[in-house]
Design a protein that fits this description.
This protein has strands at 18-24, 35-41, 44-51, 54-64, 67-76, 81-92, 98-106, 112-119. It is mostly beta strands. This is N-acetylglutamate synthase.
């Protein structure tokens, strides 16, 4: 019987974790074929992402306990650039993987939405 406890959402490192889209509002462009590779240096977080409707994307922001605040920019498959802001709440799943519950807003157009991004199984 293991006495190890699962990492807590406010302290789990995001560095090197790979995520994919699970759910998204209709006006979002991130989907199940979009993968994100996250990096973390203390409270600074960033990621590269691509796949599906996204040719190449980047996000950069900060982390405060179990919350992420960042801006994102990407080039869509339609060859248009898009920008926005996102607030995410980190959840650690029972199997140790991480899930983000996201609330986002485009800055380059009027839509807003919610999404779930989840760490891929290793």
């Amino acid at each position: 019987m293991s006495t190890e406890t699962a990492p807590q959402a406010d302290t789990v490192s995001l560095d090197g974790r790979v995520f994919c889209g699970v759910e998204n509002s209709a006006t979002g462009e991130v989907g199940q074929s979009t993968t994100f590779t996250y990096h973390q240096d203390h409270e600074v977080v960033w990621a590269e992402y691509s796949g599906g409707a996204v040719v190449r994307g980047y996000l950069v922001g900060t982390r405060n306990a179990d919350k992420l605040n960042f801006r994102y920019v990407h080039l869509g498959a339609n060859k248009e650039t898009s920008t926005g802001v996102c607030e995410s709440v980190i959840e650690v799943l029972d199997d140790g993987r991480v899930r983000f519950h996201e609330s986002w807003a485009w800055e380059s157009r009027p839509e807003t939405g919610n999404s779930i991004v989840e760490e891929l199984k290793q």
